[in-house]
Write a structure and sequence with these properties.
This is Pseudouridine synthase. With about 270 residues, the protein is α+β, with helices and mostly antiparallel strands. The protein contains seven helices and 17 strands. The protein has three domains: about 50 residues, Structural Genomics Hypothetical 15.5 Kd Protein In mrcA-pckA Intergenic Region, Chain A, CATH 3.10.290.10; about 100 residues, 2-Layer Sandwich (Pseudouridine synthase), CATH 3.30.2350; about 80 residues, Pseudouridine synthase (2-Layer Sandwich).
Length: about 270
């Protein structure tokens, strides 16, 4: 009987990333055939898997269709499933899944808006976030304070932060704002916490607005409003897989048949 590592099966089923699943197994949150699972366990297709006491169903070990969403995150939403402070989370507006769940590809802090990708494939999410692939992340940023050419050169060459040296791979002036406000497009290739803000703050200026506009080859669709999502077609999903050395799923025929989905309209606010 063919078996696979338990964390790989859970990640592929869309429960979470492989690293997250390893942590859950170590915490005793996963059971297999009625016993608490251990790191290193392997399971077959007939295994009865449960997470936090909830069975995943008979087809849990079978891969879900690999799907990827582009979501336009508004400022104020948090990238977590439940927030103890009661703030709105990014998962509340996503379409529901049967037998799996959406996994966020990277994070944006509560005050940052823009492109956030989700997938049903935990392995794909893990690889797209892994620092070894160095996928570009582009941001549009409004800076408050005087920005000199010497400052921009330092940011390109690299400055020392509290967690090591960092730099912008690219800095492009977008538009001059009023007084000391100016817009830039910047690129980084790592997902360190608040990296873009901390780089600018190291030069004595303040980021007054921050929006991610691209992750890898996926750009924020210009007609995608805050709170809306758009599902990537099979060809775009295959491109992401190829970038991180995962086998593509869609055939050429599937790509021809696939039609882009319209952005989902933001539901009206109540009250």
């Amino acid at each position: 009987m063919t078996t696979e590592k338990l964390q790989k099966v859970l990640a592929r089923a869309g429960v979470g990333s492989r690293r997250e699943m390893e942590r859950w197994i170590a915490e005793g949150r996963v059971s297999v055939d009625g016993r608490t699972a251990q790191l290193g366990d392997r399971v077959g297709a007939a295994a009865r898997i449960a997470v936090d006491g909830r069975p995943l169903g008979k087809r849990a070990a079978e891969p879900l269709p690999r799907r990827v969403l582009a979501y336009h995150k508004p400022a104020g939403e948090v990238v977590t499933r439940q927030d103890p402070e009661g703030r709105r989370t990014v998962f509340t507006r996503l379409p529901r899944l049967r037998g799996g769940r959406w996994v966020a590809i990277g994070r944006l802090d509560v005050n940052t808006s823009g492109l956030l990708l989700f997938t049903t494939d935990g392995s794909l999410a893990s690889r797209l976030m892994h620092p070894s692939y160095r996928l570009p992340r582009d941001y549009a940023v409004r800076v408050f304070g005087h920005v000199s050419e010497a400052m921009l050169e330092r940011l390109r060459e690299g400055v020392t932060l509290d967690d090591g040296k960092a730099a912008f791979e690219r800095i492009e002036t977008l538009a001059a704002g009023e007084a000391a406000n100016e817009w830039y497009r910047v690129r980084v290739r790592e997902g360190r916490n608040r990296l873009v803000r901390r780089l600018w703050e190291s030069q004595g200026v303040t980021v007054s607005r921050l929006m991610r506009v691209q992750y890898g080859p996926v750009a924020l669709p210009p007609n995608l409003r805050e709170g809306q999502h758009h599902e990537l077609g099979p060809g775009a999903v295959d491109e992401l897989c190829t970038l991180v050395d995962l086998p593509a799923e869609a055939s050429a025929g599937d790509r021809r048949k696939a039609a882009p989905r319209r952005p989902r309209r933001r539901p009206p606010r109540r009250g």
